[in-house]
Amino acid sequence: MGQARKKLTSEDNARIVQEILEDLGLADDRERSEEIRKEIQENAFTLVDGGWSGKEIFEIDHLNEKAIVRLNHRHIFVRDVYDPLKSVAKAGANGTEVDALVALIRRTLTALDLLFLAHAKAENLHRDPAIFENLRCYWGQSTHSFMRELPNGE
After folding, report:
1. Tens of pLDDT along 73-91?
2. Which residues of the chain have pLDDT under 70?
3. I need a surface site. Which of 3, 43, 45, 111 has the fewest CB within 10 A?
4. Cα–Cα distance for residue pair 144/134, rounded to 1 Å
5. What is the pLDDT of residue 137?
6. pTM assigned to the model
């Protein structure tokens, strides 16, 4: 389990979750709010949709041994790569031309390359990039672990 913000009270956790729901415009949507609360309760990591001006691809809210990742759908990577890919994954090819699907795959591959390079550039902006070694290691280990949990066909 995660170590971030391990000493929050249950009231702190509830307040943070409520703020997230408000930021997502779901405070008045009781049914959807309860779905998200349940997902947060049942999972160590929860991905929720968001959108705001700014360059952040995502924001992370750390709770006791949990993390809520808010994905910024206004960010160019999410808007131009993640969202179209997710749309095709949900709907299937659904009449989409093969050339368009190949173009999406190529754009996604290039965007993933750029995402890795952007991380390297961000590290390179720091005077001591060695401080990120543990982060890279944990990120790689976590990615490996999540990929092993990915069901076949997904």
Report:
1. 999 999 999 999 999 988 8
2. 1-6, 153-154
3. 3
4. 15
5. 92
6. 0.83
- The confidence score (pLDDT) of residue 33 equals 93
Q: Which residues contact 82 (CB under 8 A, 6 or more apart)?
A: 71
Rg (CA), the chain: 18
Cross-strand partners of 67:
45, 62
Residue 139: enclosing H or E segment and its boundaries?
helix 133-149
Q: What is the pLDDT of residues 15-35, one digit of tens each?
A: 999 999 998 889 889 999 999
Q: Are 48 and 36 in contact, with CB atoms under 8 Å apart? A: yes
**Residue 56 contacts by C-beta under 8 Å, 6 or more apart in sequence?**
72, 75
**105's tokens:** 């795959």
d(CA 37, CA 116): 32
- Number of C-alpha atoms within 13 angstroms, CB side, residue 22? 6
Give the closest residue to 76 by CA, choosing from 84, 65, 68. Answer: 84
- In angstroms, the CA 92 to CA 109 distance is 19
149: phi then psi, degrees, rounded to nearest 5: -85, -10
